[in-house]
């Protein structure tokens, strides 16, 4: 997780249970809490529009903080723990570190 400046969690205000769950999952991966930022997800009758607004808010937040690489997770993300998935993720992160 050194190649990632920050993890941004999109979380609906009405779903603190999901926020707690994903924070616990990330803690098991030894992600320091200070590397995690919660962003209130936008609610909209049109779910796609709400997601788009939330993702744009996350991008603006990253730009404001100067994060070069950030990981955007929705609060219902499933974190896979099988070795093959971890290897693929590590390869991806290593390649991110090489991008200027």
Explain what this protein looks like in three dimensions.
This protein has 100 residues and is α/β, with parallel strands linked by helices. The protein has one domain. Helix content is 47%, strand content 16%. The protein has helices at residues 16-28, 47-65, 83-97, and strands at residues 6-11, 36-40, 70-74. Strands 2-1-3 form a three-stranded parallel sheet, with helices on both faces. Strand 1 (6-11), helix 1 (16-28) and strand 2 form a beta-alpha-beta unit. The two termini are 17 Å apart. The model has no long low-confidence stretch (mean pLDDT 86).
List the topology elements:
Blueprint: E1 6-11, H1 16-28, E2 36-40, H2 47-65, E3 70-74, H3 83-97
Parallel strand pairs: 1-2, 1-3
Protein name: Glycosyltransferase family 2 protein
Helix content: 40-55%
- Largest sheet entry: 3 strands, parallel
What's the shape?
globular
Question: Quaternary status of these chains?
Answer: single chain
Please, how many domains? 1
Determine the N-to-C terminus distance.
17 Å
Note the beta-strand portion.
Answer: 15-25%
Which H/E pattern describes the elements? EHEHEH
SS element count, helices: 3
Number of strands: 3
Rounded to an integer in angstroms, the radius of gyration calculated over CA atoms is 14 Å
Structural class based on helices, strands and sheet pairing: alpha/beta
Strand order of the largest sheet: 2-1-3
- What are the segments in which pLDDT stays under 50 over at least 5 consecutive residues? none
Q: What is the mean pLDDT?
A: 86
Protein name: Glycosyltransferase family 2 protein
Organism: Escherichia coli
């Amino acid at each position: 997780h050194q190649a990632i400046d920050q993890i941004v969690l999109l979380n609906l205000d009405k779903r603190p249970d999901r926020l707690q769950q994903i924070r616990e999952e990330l803690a098991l991966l030894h992600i320091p809490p200070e590397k995690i930022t919660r962003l209130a997800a936008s609610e909209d009758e049109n779910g796609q529009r709400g997601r788009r607004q939330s993702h744009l808010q996350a991008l603006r937040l990253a730009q404001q903080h100067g994060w070069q690489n950030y990981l955007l997770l929705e609060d219902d993300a499933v974190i896979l723990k099988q070795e093959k998935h971890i290897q693929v993720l590590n390869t991806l992160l290593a390649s991110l570190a090489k991008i200027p």
